[in-house]
């Protein structure tokens, strides 16, 4: 089993709602959920600024920092009903489409949270 830390923006209502859903579905005790807001240890662990962490979701998996759409694949792989989706979207061509969709959604959320939070 892998040690996984998921870094997320709790002040983003959409992000927080989604993470709270995942928390109810994932029973793996090796997954830690880390709110990045005013969390100096998160910035030190990831070597990222708060702004960089707010731009995309991040995960630390066995010491490797992963960002963006790949983090969803890590999370979904831990949830039985999403495992198949994770396997499908992991395929190179489909991952590129998924990546573009993730970025198209993540950027407006980032800007909204940067301006209004």
Task: Describe the overall structure.
This protein is an alpha+beta fold. It has one domain. Helices cover 56% and strands 15% of the residues. It contains 6 helices and 4 strands, in the order βαβααββααα. It has a 4-stranded mixed sheet with strand order 2-1-3-4, with helices on one face. α1 (13-25) links the parallel β1 (4-8) and β2. α4 runs antiparallel to α5 (83-89). The chain is globular and about 35 Å long. The chain starts with a strand and ends with a helix. The mean pLDDT is 95.
Topology, pairings included?
Blueprint: E1 4-8, H1 13-25, E2 31-35, H2 40-46, H3 50-55, E3 58-61, E4 64-67, H4 69-76, H5 83-89, H6 92-116
Parallel strand pairs: 1-2
Antiparallel strand pairs: 1-3, 3-4
Classify the helix fraction into a percent range.
55-70%
Form type: globular
Distance between the termini: 36 Å
**Total beta strands:** 4
Average residue-wise pLDDT: 95
Strand order of the largest sheet: 2-1-3-4
Structural domains: how many: 1
Main sheet: strands, sense, barrel = 4 strands, mixed
What labels describe this entry?
single chain; 117 residues; alpha+beta; 4-stranded mixed sheet; 6 helices; 4 strands; 56% helix; 15% strand; globular
How would you concisely characterize the structure shown here?
The protein is built from six helices and four strands, in the order E-H-E-H-H-E-E-H-H-H. It has 117 residues and is an alpha+beta fold. The chain has one domain.
